[in-house]
Amino acid sequence: MADIGDLSLWEVFIRTKGGLSHRHAGSVHAADKRMALEAARDTYTRRMEGVSIWVVPSSQVSASDPDEYDSFFEPAKDKIYRHPTFYPVPDEIKNM
Amino acid sequence: MYTTELKSGSDGGKKRSKVEIVEDPAKLAAFEARVAADEFIEAKDWMPEAYRKTLVRQISQHAHSEIVGMLPEGNWLRRAPSLKRKAILLAKIQDEAGHGLYLYSAAETLGTPRDEMIEALHSGKAKYSTIFNYPTLTWADIGAIGWLVDGAAIMNQVPLQRTSYGPYARAMVRVCKEESFHQRQGYEIMTVMANGTDAQKRMAQDALNRWWWPSLMMFGPPDDSSPNTERSMRWRIKRDTNDELRQLFVDVTVPQAEYLNLSIPDADLKFNKEKDGYDFGEIDWDEFYAVVRGEGPVAKERIKARTDAWEEGAWVREAAMVHAQKQSKKDAA
Ligand SMILES: [Fe+2]
Ligand SMILES: [Fe+2]
Ligand SMILES: [Fe+2]
Ligand SMILES: [Fe+2]
């Protein structure tokens, strides 16, 4: 038989209810997107855990490198003034 | 304000387009029922064409407002009175850029490409909040903007976290988390100036005098001349009327001005016990519509700054594309 390759890996994202964003749930192996969607449904939403599913070929996901964590996220580290708690609000002032 | 449908004349939406799309009544009824039940509509759900259009206009106007809104503050970045103030102002402006991007991406889920929206801004076809067509004359204006303009934006954006279109609502959740810092840093600037030298106090009062009325205008025309309010409320695109939000803003802001010993430039402002809120003077709507038409003091300057930035950035986008092409050739080799 000709080499037809293996089932590839797909990342699965589930929207648990309307208004919420899709969140990563896990992955499935599948031959194409239809099969990936059905496998994701059967694997991750057997109890109605979702109203919508996205599947993305795992090979298409670019991720930040954990070894670069320090340098990659460094720009935000020393900016405490981005938080509202940096600014004192007098007790007399409401609604701020 | 950001989310008010801005049209060039006080005739608002009276001139209806002749071609009205006829929607499938069953689908429309189901949609209305979902929205009435406070369900969220997501990108792939069926929606009436008018809902889609209104949202694209509202969300892209909101996005443009965030982007153009960087300009008045950017004017003081290199003249901030200390390194600390400069770092804070830069961080705030970066947030506004982020807000613009959250919103463009929400609008794109409705099928309108970003290029199209940006082109509409640059050509003058698209509107943005009138507030950003006023100049920032002194450092106190930076305080007044954070306190009043971001304060008004918060008033308007908090209820939009429950707007019916999911991607817009989620963008608003992110934005609202970030706005509180904006308002507080502005109020802190005002506090320092209002308690400073006589010259500083005068600057603070002058900034309040100039920004007060334009801030009230941010909420948009009065309810009786906002013809689409009823439908937008029913579709939960808006959750409160312009006048309701404006009243709320006045009620929370007046005591904040009193605490600073600054006076609101409105002779008719007084507390009304019966309604448990302030009565306030007549807004100059002629000025508002003139600014909407693009006659604001610095309207031309604003759009020129945006188009210049876009054109001057073209080589960066080109270089990135060429670099990416080269890399993918290398990877393929
Ligand atoms: Fe913003
Ligand atoms: Fe803003
Ligand atoms: Fe905003
Ligand atoms: Fe802001």
Walk me through the topology.
The complex is a heterodimer of chains A (96) and B (333).
Chain A: E1 8-15, E2 23-30, H1 33-44, E3 52-57, H2 69-77
Antiparallel strand pairs in A: 1-2, 1-3
Chain B: H1 25-36, H2 49-68, H3 70-74, H4 83-108, H5 114-122, H6 139-160, H7 166-194, H8 198-217, H9 229-234, H10 242-259, E1 270-272, E2 277-279, H11 285-295, H12 299-312, H13 314-332
Antiparallel strand pairs in B: 1-2
The structure holds fe (ii) ion (FE2) (4 copies).
Task: Please describe the structure with a list of short key phrases separated by commas or semicolons.
heterodimer, A: 96 residues, alpha+beta, three-stranded antiparallel beta sheet, 2 helices, elongated, B: 333 residues, mainly alpha, two-stranded antiparallel ribbon, 2 strands, globular, binds fe (ii) ion
What does this structure look like?
The complex is a heterodimer of chains A (96) and B (333). Chain A has two helices and three strands. With 96 residues, chain A is of the alpha+beta class. A three-stranded antiparallel sheet of chain A has the order 2-1-3, with helices on one face. Chain A has one domain: Ubiquitin-like (UB roll) (Roll), CATH 3.10.20.520. In chain B, 63% of the residues lie in helices and 2% in strands. Chain B is mainly α. Chain B starts with 24 loop residues before the first helix and ends with a helix. In chain B, helix 2 packs antiparallel against helix 4 and helix 4 packs antiparallel against helix 7. At the A-B interface, loops of A face helix 4, helix 7 and helix 10 of B. Bound molecules: fe (ii) ion (4 copies).
